[in-house]
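Hi, here's the filled form for the chain we discussed.

Project: internal
Contact: R.S.
Residues: 173
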Amino acid sequence: MNRTLVLGGARSGKSAHAEGLLGSGAVRYVATARRWPGDDDWDARIAAHRARRPPSWTTIEDTDPVNVLREPGPPLLVDDMATWLTGVLDDATAWEAPSPPPVVGERTAALVAAVAACPSPLVLVSAEVGLGVVPATRAGRLFRDELGALNAALAEACDEVLLLVAGLPLRLK
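And the returned structure, exactly as it came back:
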């Protein structure tokens, strides 16, 4: 089974590249972003992502893609792991905690296990946050550290890992 992780910084082209890996046939697109009432900018970004998907794709808005990853069916694209992790950290009230609550590691481990066992071709999208400066806030460092660990675990579970820089894919694995 082919599992691909597509990493990249903000506006690197990672989502569009990941979408291009799957073509225009039937695809299950799992959108992990949460909607925030009154955030028109966020709604516009979600709408722009939706508009570029082929009509044959099915969008599943799910902040916990583990169950979808377990279901056989058409190829899956999960976009993205950084917004998924943000939701996990929000739910765990981890931002101000002295250390990440155990549920964060449990949810991350469950996701990685579901990726490793996914019965369908799979493309994951995630932000690469390890190339910049050390964040000035504890919450920023928590996010960077947890996402870095998640990306490393996902890279190990995937057959192929790509890094997008300025719209150009670099094959890491």
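Let me know if anything looks off before we file it.
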